[in-house]
Amino acid sequence: MFSFHMHKLIGILTGVALCAAACHSDTKPSGTTDTASTTKQVNVNVPVFNADSAYAYTDKQVSFGPRIPATPAQNTCAEWLIAQFKPLADTLYVQRTNVTVPGGKSVPCINVIASFNPDAAQRILLLTHWDTRPHADQDAFDKTKQFDGADDGASGVGVLLEVARQLHAQHPAAGIDILLEDVEDSGVSEDENSYCLGTQYWARNPHVKGYKANYGILLDMVGGRGSQFYMEAGSQQYAYGPMKMFWDVANRLGYSDYFRYENTGAAITDDHVYINTIAMIPTFDVIAMQPSGNFAPHWHTTNDNMQVIDKRTLQVVGQTLLEVIYKQPFEY
Fold first, then answer.
1. Hey, what long-range contacts does 304-307 have (CB within 8 A, 24 or more apart)?
2. Which keywords does the record carry (predicted)?
3. pLDDT class for 9, splitting at 50, 70, 90?
4. Is the pTM of this model over 0.70?
5. How does pLDDT run across 192-204, given as a tens digit for each residue?
6. pLDDT at residue 245 greater than cutoff 90
7. Which end of the chain has the lower number of beta carbons within 10 A, N or C?
8. So where are the chain's domains?
């Protein structure tokens, strides 16, 4: 049963919400068994992730103000994101549509997709949301206030912008698609499908008709000081093979304090759910949680600002991503 006291709704996996995943619970997604030999790059030099760069990208987004749909900050930040990715990507796609948020309001939705090695058959989808929740509904003092969304939104974009900079400088063998999705965080707990609207739109209308990737990696709240990342239950159900590979790489790199194997039992309704169930791409969620399964204390509060962002956390997530992409993208 899911508890509805949080967005990215947390609950104990019962099989009700994720029963459709049963046929995808193999350790290796169907159709990817023989990919390792075609893209293995054991001797490749893995770029060094620049945490200063990722931090600056995060800070720049926050400087625009809360990136709330239908506000000037949404447009300003979107244009900045497009300008950053355009010289880096082999192909850049921008999806502009309108989606309906709770209350019946139609708001603009801007998804930005940067593709690298577009002709490569074996692909990884990297995604994160870039919008900000309209109000700090978990704040102890004023739940109507707007907040910066430095960790919840901007940190994932900061990591992926720095990854894109490295992909441009040194192309990997694997194809990489970076999806920045909009209007993720405007939902209400009474309707879990009111979240992740940009992702739901993309999953039904991908940037390339018939788009497929071997698997996807979702980043959400990946910059907070002292973050820990546990294996979320739905991610294990749909994408256990690539998820365990990612955790193993992180631990091999010395990041065991961050990437934990303990099972919290938490299942989270986040963007990966719709990539798994609509786009049918096995996708796992890298999302900071406490051992209890709750989110960090700054989640959806006015404390989610640049003071909680830690370059070490950005470094750990970003370097693990680069290690997987360049050295063993499909060894799971």
1. 304/136, 304/147, 304/148, 304/149, 304/150, 304/151, 304/152, 305/62, 305/147, 305/148, 305/150, 306/58, 306/59, 306/62, 306/148, 306/150
2. Acyltransferase, Transferase
3. low
4. yes
5. 999 999 999 999 9
6. yes
7. N
8. 10-327
